[in-house]
Write a structure and sequence with these properties.
Elements lengths: L1 E5 L1 H7 L2 H16 L3 E2 L4 E3 L7 E9 L4 E9 L11 E9 L5 E6 H20 L6 E5 L3 H13 L4 E5 L3 H15 L3 E3 L3 H5 L4 E4 L18 E4 L12 H6 E5 L2 H7 L1 H8 L8 E4 H5 L12 E5 L4 H18 L3 E4 L9
Parallel strand pairs: 1-7, 8-9, 8-11, 9-10, 11-12, 12-15, 13-14, 13-15
Antiparallel strand pairs: 1-16, 2-4, 3-4, 4-5, 5-6, 6-7
């Protein structure tokens, strides 16, 4: 038996953001309908370590697959040659449990995370939203700019980074690449002022977005914080917003952007209006008025990784990409 190893470069080439946006909408519907399942992720933080290890298993009935994403999370990698998230998605089929592929997780995580934010933006942002603010200038800022541009015709973009040189470099590069007016803001407040869509994609442990800055009618994608003890939004920003999540169970256990305001007594569980899958299946409405502020708290789900890896694998098989490696699993008839 053979397993197909698909590296970061190949995965990035095979997983285009537009296809991934449609795929993420489909898998979130499957999750809502009970045709995709997963437990909470398991995270190991060794004592005195600079990062941790996360294991995220899931299965998607409609695709006939089961699998696991295993990644290290090292927020301190900012400014180094290494991404903050590194690892692999292991893909198995559900007829005999055969391993099909091992796909680089850095590329999968980058694209599917932004694609889910694009799904949220499409169902929650105003239809005329055209002004984007990016808080953060790393991998997810690049991915989010590309993904949000797929669902809204952007008129202007402002980017802020704690390191101004990074914001300037991002703005110059993306202005040339996309033919958009991308500006480097001197402060997060300046970036957010007047924005219709705000994406927080930092590794900050403390708020970088404050509620008083956010204009009425804006939509926020809160992406960077994925632990109960850290957040990118202050309490006022959460209180002002109608909050939607990728999955309630995950948000109630892992989302510091929600759990910290809850611990302060500013909100309770009822502040979570619903899940994206519930909007997509018509169970609940999304945006109800032009003036309300909507907030999508993204944590990233194992089923999203699995579906994205399945798409990469299918394209790799079709194009002969990846590296085939002999791996056991066949019955040893001589034993």
């Amino acid at each position: 038996m053979e397993i197909r190893i698909i590296n970061q470069r190949e995965a990035k080439e095979l997983l285009d953001v537009e296809s991934c946006i449609h795929l993420m909408a489909d898998v979130l519907k499957s999750l809502e309908k009970g045709r995709a399942r997963m437990p909470l992720r398991s995270v190991l933080w060794p004592e005195n370590a600079r990062g941790g290890l996360a294991a995220m298993p899931s299965t998607i009935e409609d695709l006939g697959i089961i699998g696991l994403k295993v990644i290290t999370v090292f927020p301190g990698n900012t400014g180094t040659p290494y991404d903050a998230h590194q690892g692999a998605v292991l893909l198995f089929e559900t007829d005999h449990g055969r391993p099909l592929a091992m796909v680089d997780a850095t590329a999968v995580t980058a694209v599917r995370t932004a694609a889910v934010s694009a799904v949220a933006t499409d169902v929650l942002a105003r239809k005329d939203a055209a002004d984007l603010a990016l808080l953060g200038s790393g991998t997810q800022a690049h991915a989010h700019l590309e993904a949000i541009a797929c669902v809204r015709p952007l008129r202007g973009v402002r980017v802020w980074s704690p390191t101004r040189a990074n914001a300037v470099a991002f703005a110059q590069r993306e202005s040339e690449r996309r033919g958009l007016d991308v500006e480097a803001a001197d402060s997060a407040e300046e970036a957010v002022a007047g924005a219709d869509i705000v994406c927080t994609v930092t590794t900050s442990r403390e708020p970088v977005l404050f509620g008083e800055w956010v204009r009425e009618g804006a939509h926020i994608n809160a992406v960077g914080a994925c632990l109960p003890s850290i957040r990118e939004l202050d309490t006022h920003a959460v209180v002002r917003s109608r909050l939607f999540v990728d999955r309630r169970e995950s948000a109630m256990n892992e989302a510091g952007d929600f759990l910290i305001p809850k611990a302060e007594g500013a909100v309770d569980d009822s502040h979570i209006v619903g899940e994206l899958g519930e909007i997509l299946t018509g169970k609940i409405p999304g945006r109800e008025t032009a003036g309300e502020i909507t907030l999508f708290k993204s944590l990233g789900l194992a089923v999203e990784d699995l579906a994205a890896a399945r798409l990469v694998y299918a394209k790799a098989v079709d194009r002969g990409a990846g590296t085939l490696v002999e791996l056991g699993g066949s019955r040893d008839v001589d034993a």
